[in-house]
Amino acid sequence: MIIETNHAPKAIGPYSQAVVAGDYVYVSGCCPFSTEDGSVVGTTIEEQAMQVMENLKAIVAAADLTMSDVVKTTCFISDLENFATFNTIYADYFSGGTFPARSCVEVARLPKDVLIEVEAVIYKK
């Protein structure tokens, strides 16, 4: 089953916002794009990280789940100098200090030259 919501940006290529496979939901990489026109929201890591996490949260909600159901994220960041700032914003989206497993890697370039992209795996309990 495909998950699609108007509360997160439309896919900019041949992929879905998220796909349900059994008890799991696989969320495509979320970038800091506007839900209205697909433009990049913000120029700083703070602005872009908040938009990425809001987009991710909207897709999670569209699957009738919450951020506490996220079991794994992969974070792609264009500059690891921004890691601590991103970490602070990221942590705010998970309640009770229970965080998913995570990988975070620096990459050379992201779509539309954004600073951050986050993908997720969610477990439907």
From TrEMBL:
The name this protein goes by in its record: Regulator
An example Gene Ontology molecular-function term: deaminase activity
Gene3D superfamilies referenced in this protein's UniProt entry, alphabetically: RutC-like
Source superkingdom: Bacteria
Cellular compartments per GO CC: cytosol
Database matches in InterPro entries: RidA, RutC-like_sf, YjgF/YER057c/UK114
Sequence similarity: Belongs to the RutC family.
Coiled coil stretches, renumbered: none
Alphabetical list of CDD domains matching this protein: YjgF_YER057c_UK114_family (cd00448)
